[in-house]
Structure formats: C-alpha cells, structure tokens
C-alpha cells in the first residue's frame, strides 16, 4: 500500500518519484473564536496567527473582522496576503426560526447576500454559517422544520453564491444538528454550492461520537473547527467538557489523522474552548424528546466513549484580570500539541 503524504503548516518535503497523485497538504488554521476575548483588530489577530505559522485564519463572526465595508475588507485581505494567510469569513444563524437568529440584521437571505459580497472582497472561498443551537431541538418547532427553513434561505441565494465562485459552509453548531441531519440539509439545499464546516467538539453536545460526525460529513467538507473533548458517565447520565487539545478522551489524535486522509487540502482550524462539565440526563425518558430520531447504533458509539472516560476535574476559577491570558495559554498549548502531531504526518 502506498503511503499518503500530508504536510503540516510551514512544512515542506521533496516530491516523491512517482506518477501517483499526491494529496494536497492539510492547512493548519485558527478560528478567531479561540481568541474572542483579546479585543484585537483583524490586523493584530492576523499577525498573532502568523507567528504560530497558521496558513488560514477563520473570521467566524463579523465582529472579528471589524466590518463588511469593501475598503476595509480589501485592507485586511492585503495584510493577510503579505503574511501568506488565506482568509475565511463567517456569520451566525441563517435559520429564521432559530432562537439564535438575529432578525434585527435583516432576513436570512439579506444577511447571506451581504456575506457573499464580503467574501468576494476578502478573498474568502467560503461563508461559514449555522442553523442554531441545542435549544432549537426543543420547543414547538421540530428540527426538521428548522432544517427546511434553512434550506429555503440557502436556495434563495444559490445563483449569487455560484456567480461569486464561493460556497456556503454550514457548521454542526452548538449541539443543533447531528451529522445525519446536516447531511440532509446539505443535500436538500444543493451540494454544488453548500458544504460542511465540520466541528469536532460540537458533536458531543448533540450526543454524537465526533468520529461518526467526520465519517458522515467528510464528503461535504469545506473547512473545519478542531477542539478536543472529554466525556464520561455520571449518576444523571453523561457529562461532557471541552478541553485543551490532548487532554480529552475522544481520540483527537486519530480524528486529526482521519481528517487528513478524508479531507485533504481542507483547513484544520483550531477553535479552542475550555469549559466545565455539561450534563445530559440520558437516563430520563423525558430527555429523549429532543432526540427521538437518533438511531440506537449512533448513540451507542457516543455511549462507548463515555463508558471509557474518566471524570475531568474542573480547572480552578480564573480571575477576571487573568482571563485573556488564560485564553491565550489554552490556545497556545492546543496549537503546539496539534503542530507536533501534524509534524508526525510529514513523510
């Protein structure tokens, strides 16, 4: 079997003497949500990410890039170009029935139209967006209806997306959709212009093994968010916490290797968030009202992770005046872990 070759950010290797096509290099990136409390301008954020040899910087929300004025975006793009960085831009909910949708910013179509124009000005190949959060799994509107509403918004901008030469990357966000559901959304909207932003941490908030998420969504992958997690059994059911890379028990090493194999050339962007435990009362029948369509075989994979896990002791509270420093420390420890792992994929 021929060994496949993957390059970490900033690495180089001689081209082997073979006629076989070499997969494009995996690109290490940074989702600026990792550094959300720093208060940096987009130029300062780009400079910081360049010091960590990032090749992609993912401005996952408008606030991180500053504003959507053409002149401003072109300046940010020029600065990124000088640093050898590819920009990706994003927005929040595009689902009008989601609890996270901000109607004050216009309709979902209007908000997407602004982002499509911004992507062209910034040189971003994608616009990242999402449906909502786990809160949308409960209430009078079922998830299937939220998906349908999101599909309608996406279809309404198809011609503009295609004309702009970009794609819309819908994220599995904050426990909103399981991978099977996001796959349904992408195929219903049109996989010629809609794909996935695969997040490795959010599946745990949707009772899903992140490896299953990756396996399901890899054919649709446009970009990604990388975050490690810990999951374990508790009296009430299952507990989940997001942790620094390398401190979890979901096999993040293998997840990264699998991503390199299944999604060559796509950005692997660090989205580092460290949280306390979040408990899921899966032993209470009432809990399952939000997950009635989850196949048992899928949940069993998630349950197996929890059965193997050990309780994650919470970090001591961080004083407010040290929070921004702690955020950088979490990010820097995580990106160092990931860079070391990616170095081992270089052949």
Q: Segments where pLDDT lies below 50 for 5+ residues? A: 1-20
- Main pleated-sheet profile: 8 strands, parallel, barrel
CATH hierarchy: architecture of one domain: Alpha-Beta Barrel
Helix and strand string, N-terminal first? EHEHHEHEHHEHEHEEEHEEHH
CATH superfamily of one domain: Divalent-metal-dependent TIM barrel enzymes
The helix count comes to: 11
Overall spatial form:
globular
Distance between the amino and carboxyl termini: 15 Å
Indicate the CATH class of one domain: Alpha Beta
Helical content, roughly? 25-40%
Q: Tally of extended strands?
A: 11
Which strand order do you get reading across the main beta sheet? 1-2-3-4-5-6-7-10
Mean pLDDT: 93
CATH fold-level topology of one domain: TIM Barrel
Radius of gyration: 20 Å
Structural class call reads alpha/beta
């Amino acid at each position: 079997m021929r060994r496949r070759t993957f390059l970490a950010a900033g690495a180089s290797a001689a081209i082997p003497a073979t006629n076989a096509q070499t997969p494009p290099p995996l690109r290490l990136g940074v989702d600026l949500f990792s550094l959300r409390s720093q208060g940096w301008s987009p130029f300062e954020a780009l400079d910081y990410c360049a010091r960590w040899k990032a090749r992609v910087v993912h401005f996952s929300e408008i606030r991180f890039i500053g504003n959507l004025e053409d002149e401003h975006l072109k300046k940010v793009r020029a600065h990124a170009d000088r640093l050898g960085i590819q920009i990706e831009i994003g927005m929040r909910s595009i689902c009008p029935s989601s609890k996270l949708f901000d109607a004050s910013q216009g309709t979902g179509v209007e908000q997407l139209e602004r982002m499509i124009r911004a992507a062209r000005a910034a040189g971003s190949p994608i616009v990242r967006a999402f449906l909502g959060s786990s809160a949308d799994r409960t209430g009078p509107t079922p998830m299937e209806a939220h998906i349908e509403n999101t599909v309608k918004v996406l279809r309404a901008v198809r011609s503009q997306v295609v004309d702009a030469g970009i794609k819309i990357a819908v994220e599995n966000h904050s426990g909103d959709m399981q991978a099977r559901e996001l796959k349904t959304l992408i195929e219903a909207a049109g996989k010629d212009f809609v794909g996935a932003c695969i997040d490795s941490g959010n599946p745990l908030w949707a009772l899903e093994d992140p490896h299953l998420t990756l396996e399901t969504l890899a054919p649709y992958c446009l970009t990604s968010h990388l975050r490690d997690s810990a999951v374990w059994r508790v009296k009430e059911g299952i507990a989940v916490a997001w942790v620094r890379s390398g401190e979890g028990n979901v096999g993040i090493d293998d997840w990264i290797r699998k991503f390199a194999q299944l999604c060559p050339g796509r950005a692997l962007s660090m989205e580092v968030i460290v949280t306390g435990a979040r408990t899921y009362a899966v032993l209470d029948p009432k809990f399952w009202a939000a997950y009635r369509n989850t196949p048992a075989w899928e949940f069993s994979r998630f349950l197996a992770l929890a059965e193997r896990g050990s309780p994650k002791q919470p970090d001591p509270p961080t004083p407010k005046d040290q929070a921004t420093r702690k955020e950088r420390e979490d990010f820097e420890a995580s990106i160092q872990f990931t860079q070391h792992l990616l170095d081992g994929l270089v052949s």
